[in-house]
Write a structure and sequence with these properties.
Layout lengths: L1 H35 L3 H19 L2 H11 L3 H38 L7 H24 L3 H50 L10 H11 L3 H12 L1 H8 L2 H14 L3 H17 L6 H25 L1 H8 L12 H17 L1 H5 L3 H26 L1 H26 L6 H24 L4 H18 L5 H17 L1
Helix pairs in contact: 1-6, 1-11, 1-20, 2-4, 2-5, 2-8, 3-4, 3-5, 3-7, 3-11, 4-5, 5-6, 8-16, 9-10, 9-16, 10-14, 11-14, 12-14, 12-18, 12-19, 14-17, 16-17, 18-19
Main location: membrane
Protein name: Polysaccharide biosynthesis C-terminal domain-containing protein
InterPro entries: Poly_Biosynth_Transport (IPR050833)
Length: 483
């Protein structure tokens, strides 16, 4: 197991380079966006559109490629899947592009309540074509172990697109300029990647291969749409049920909370190829259980430590006085992101056994709970209603996916200990929010109490046995020496 954990940690650390570079640039540029973009809600709405568009065009074929990359009989079959996955996704996105070109004005009025942005959806759709190509090609690079190629081009397209967008935005193009930059940057990187990977394609349209990809990926579409609901609709709901001021605060909080991906995204990038590559091993379930517990503990403690210093960091990052209270809402949003990544570990058996419909069913139930909860709580509790329901919904996903996974692929997750730990953790985090809201003196006393109680719970419940920590200590120095 030590060797496998070392490989997962090593791959995650390598992927973290790209995540850190991308987020560092995002950190530097956000003050520029808030200064030059007169309406952040338009930006957020268009991002929500491109996210759901990507899901509808890809239809889970990227997840299917992660499975068939390791399940293919030979190199030619693998490359045939690769070509057909890209061709299928791009063809659908081109169709959407044609539709938004001719229907841009009514769609713009529907989404933005203005005809000022009637070309925005078309430009955003064209940019998404490049993003889809990049997503598929870089996914293939991940599965084939080309980590540094992945890092280089991930940073190239994110950082390059943002820098080009800055030029347009500061020259008065507004939100349109932001997506002009994405269109140019993502198209250039997509063209370069297609050239570099030209020998990896088997240029043969295959109904059988496309059918395999869709059969595996399509059941995940409700999962993706539910995820989109949980991540994207909170802002417009807060806007309509609360106020524009709260919607803008929510937007700022979401952007700051997204920095948790510095922990979750590298793991997520490494996890899928890692889990699929060891699925036939006898000790795979034991490894999956350890990974779930480590990710939960490391992720939650990181969020707690961040919350101790979030107020000054947030105000340094978001300087506008009308968004000053947004730091209070960062931790539940970040925790929701962590839970979303955890579901891929708790549901690893469902992915291995091709029972992806059960994951989708869990997300659909959670999204219904989320919708009902948000509509009931936002009118009375504002932003707290929305962010609290985000955490609750993802926790429901974890519980439901865990239960379904255990029926087809039992894994010793120590789930009871996890739930006790999470209960103590959430009580402590609510207390931290209360202290910060009322600006009590000597906050650090409560902070120290909360962290000690949380860590003690880890060992009292035996969530992380002492001997496991010893194994990790043996792994980490080797990783450092190897670097």
């Amino acid at each position: 197991m030590k060797t496998l954990l070392k490989k997962l940690f090593s791959d995650s650390a390598a992927f973290a380079v790209a995540m850190f570079g991308n987020k560092l640039v995002a950190l530097i540029l956000v003050p520029i966006w808030f200064k030059y973009l007169d309406n952040e809600a338009i930006w957020g709405t268009t991002n929500a559109y491109t996210l759901i568009l990507t899901y509808l065009c890809v239809l889970g074929t990227d997840a299917a490629m992660a499975f068939y990359f390791y399940d293919s009989k030979n190199e030619e079959e693998r490359r045939t899947y690769f070509f057909n996955a890209i061709f299928f996704s791009v063809s659908i996105c081109v169709g959407f592009g044609v539709f938004t070109f001719f229907a841009g004005e009514p769609l713009g009025i529907l989404l933005y309540a203005s005809n000022e942005y009637n070309r925005l959806l078309f430009i955003a759709t064209l940019a998404t074509i490049g993003a889809i190509i990049i997503q598929h090609v870089l996914g293939y690079a991940r599965y084939s172990g080309r980590v540094w190629l992945f890092n280089t081009f991930s940073m190239a397209y994110v950082i390059g697109s943002n820098l080009i967008s800055v030029i347009f935005v500061i020259n008065g193009f507004g939100v349109m300029g932001l997506f002009y930059g994405q269109l140019i940057g993502q198209s250039l990187v997509a063209i370069i990647l297609l050239f570099l990977f030209r020998k990896e394609f088997v240029f043969k349209l295959s109904k059988a291969h496309i059918s395999d990809l869709i059969r595996y990926g399509l059941p995940l579409l409700p999962t993706l749409i539910s995820f989109w609901v949980l991540t994207s609709v909170s802002r417009p709901i807060v806007l309509h049920l609360s106020s524009m001021e709260n919607a803008n605060i929510m937007e700022a909080s979401i952007r700051v909370a997204s920095f948790i991906v510095l922990i979750t995204a590298p793991f997520q990038l490494a996890w899928r190829p890692f889990s699929m590559s060891i699925k036939e091993r006898e000790d795979a379930p034991e490894v999956f259980g350890v990974v779930a517990r480590l990710l939960l503990v490391v992720g939650t403690l990181s969020i707690m430590l961040l919350t101790f210093v979030i107020e000054p960091l947030y105000k340094l990052y978001i300087s506008e006085a009308d968004k000053a209270t947004g730091y209070l809402y960062v931790w539940p949003l970040a925790l929701g992101t962590l839970f979303n990544v955890l579901h891929t570990v708790f549901g690893v058996g469902l992915l291995i056994k091709k029972q992806t419909k059960k994951i989708s069913r869990s997300f659909m139930i959670a999204s219904i709970i989320y919708f009902m909860g948000v509509f009931l709580t936002v009118p009375s509790y504002g932003i707290w209603g929305a962010v609290s329901m985000t955490t609750v919904a993802y926790l429901v996903v974890i519980v439901l996916v865990y239960r379904q996974n255990q029926k087809v692929y039992p894994v010793q997750f120590h789930f009871k200990a996890m739930m006790i730990y999470l209960t103590v953790y959430l009580v402590n985090m609510v207390g931290i929010s209360w202290i910060q809201t009322h600006q009590y003196e000597y906050k650090w006393v409560y902070y120290m109490t909360a962290i000690v109680m949380t860590i003690l719970t880890i060992f009292i419940t035996k969530l992380i046995p002492v001997q496991l920590l010893g194994n990790i200590r043996n792994i980490l120095p080797k990783l450092g020496g190897k670097g």
